[in-house]
Design goal:
The complex is a heterodimer of chains A (257) and B (76). Chain A has a single domain (27-252), classed as Rossmann fold (3-Layer(aba) Sandwich), CATH 3.40.50. Chain A is built from 10 helices and 8 strands. Chain A has helices at 3-9, 32-47, 81-91, 103-109, 111-119, 160-163, 169-174, 190-208, 223-226, 230-244, and strands at residues 11-14, 53-57, 72-75, 96-102, 125-130, 179-186, 213-219, 248-252. In chain A, helix 3 packs parallel to helix 5 and helix 4 (103-109) crosses helix 5 (111-119). A two-stranded antiparallel sheet of chain B has the order 1-4. A two-stranded antiparallel sheet of chain B has the order 2-3. Chain B is built from 2 helices and 4 strands. The chains are: A alpha/beta (257), B alpha+beta (76). The interface between A and B is large, with 36 and 35 residues. Strand 1 (11-14) of chain A pairs antiparallel with strand 4 (68-75) of chain B.
Chain lengths: 257, 76
């Protein structure tokens, strides 16, 4: 059996979701953002919400997310995506509203907006890409940078006495009464990607059922910021990041309510 | 016994040569090109052991740019 025959007669097992358009993504080779974009596009497609989604893009590497996924987008000021998402969802309760933010946007400049939007139980989903570094601006230390991790602004590694401790936003979110589903996932392997997709789907469904705010953290790699190959970055993440950022659901009250 | 035969089609112009699909493939079907590059200057992924592909779609799942389409056919 030749390759051409398989392509002609066989079934398509996997292809790029139609919502993800043909514009080449500006992300570095091997960046986790691409995988998460793909998952978001797949979930929106599967839920049949293509015409009823309003997404909020952040400031950071994902600032151009609106160029790649063909749904309605709003671009928020730095860190203010959850505030904008709250407004959109209140004006349009039948829309699927989610924000897509990195750790510099969500865990640093936007900490107040994030915590208050989550605590107000706005029916939105926040997708939080945590790669422990400021990727877009050249690899500076972020609030989520691990202790001992070297970045451009802490070249000898992050020290407690000088920089304090890394911030666990997802744990904070889990303690808030307004949140419904809080989870931490990753996209370093096929199994992890499938789990992350299920988590995003669940969060989107809860937000449409009006069960409260949802936070999906995706522990990601930034291979150029970390100065590693994509493959090594995945390994480094497994060995170092997961020890501090434990994967799994932290809170799920949606099934009970 | 029924066997699964697979085939992958890589959008070579979209591929950035990150090598994640090559690592993810359990049967070493894919590899990056050695010298050949696409218009952006990246070495791109291509099939080197096409016969062994079972169409598990691991490569396509991990591809950050959605460059890979996977086909599968059941054969006797």
């Amino acid at each position: 059996m030749t390759r051409e025959e398989i392509i002609e007669k066989g079934q398509v097992v996997y292809k790029k979701p139609a919502l993800l358009n043909d514009t080449p993504m500006h992300y570095c080779p091997g960046c986790s953002h691409g995988v998460v974009h793909k998952l978001v596009a797949e979930v929106i497609e599967e839920m049949g919400m293509t015409d009823k989604t309003v997404a909020i893009s952040p400031v950071g590497c994902a600032v151009f997310a609106y160029k790649y996924i063909d749904v309605d987008w709003q671009e928020a000021a730095h860190g203010r995506a959850p505030a904008l998402a709250s407004a959109v969802k209140r004006l349009w309760p039948d829309r699927l509203v989610f924000t897509y933010q990195g750790d510099g946007d969500l865990a640093c400049i936007g900490t107040a907006e994030t915590i208050h939007a989550l605590n107000r139980a706005e029916n939105i989903t926040i997708i939080f890409i945590n790669n422990a570094i400021y990727g877009m601006t050249g690899g500076q230390m972020a609030p989520t940078t691990l202790l001992g991790m070297k970045t451009a602004t802490c070249p000898y590694g992050r020290e407690v006495s000088l920089h304090g401790y890394p911030l666990k936003m997802t744990e904070i979110a889990a303690t808030l009464d307004g949140t419904c589903y809080v989870t931490r996932q990753s996209v370093h392997s096929v199994a992890a990607i499938n789990r992350a997709k299920k988590a995003i789907r669940k969060a989107f469904e809860y937000s449409m059922q009006g069960k409260g705010s949802n936070l999906v953290e995706i522990v990601s790699t930034c291979n150029s910021g970390w100065k590693m190959s994509p493959e090594k970055a995945n390994k480094w993440m497994e060995e170092n990041m997961f020890e501090f950022y434990h994967l799994g659901d932290l809170k799920d009250t949606g099934a009970v309510k | 016994m029924a066997k699964m035969k697979g085939a992958t089609v890589v959008d070579t112009e979209r591929c950035k040569g990150c090598n994640l699909c090559v690592v993810a493939c359990p049967l070493d079907v894919l590899a990056l090109t050695g010298k050949e590059v696409n218009r952006k200057g990246y070495n791109f992924a291509h099939e080197v052991l096409a016969d062994t592909c079972t169409g598990c779609a691991s490569c396509a799942t991990v591809c950050p740019d959605g460059c890979i389409t996977v086909y599968r056919l059941k054969t006797e």
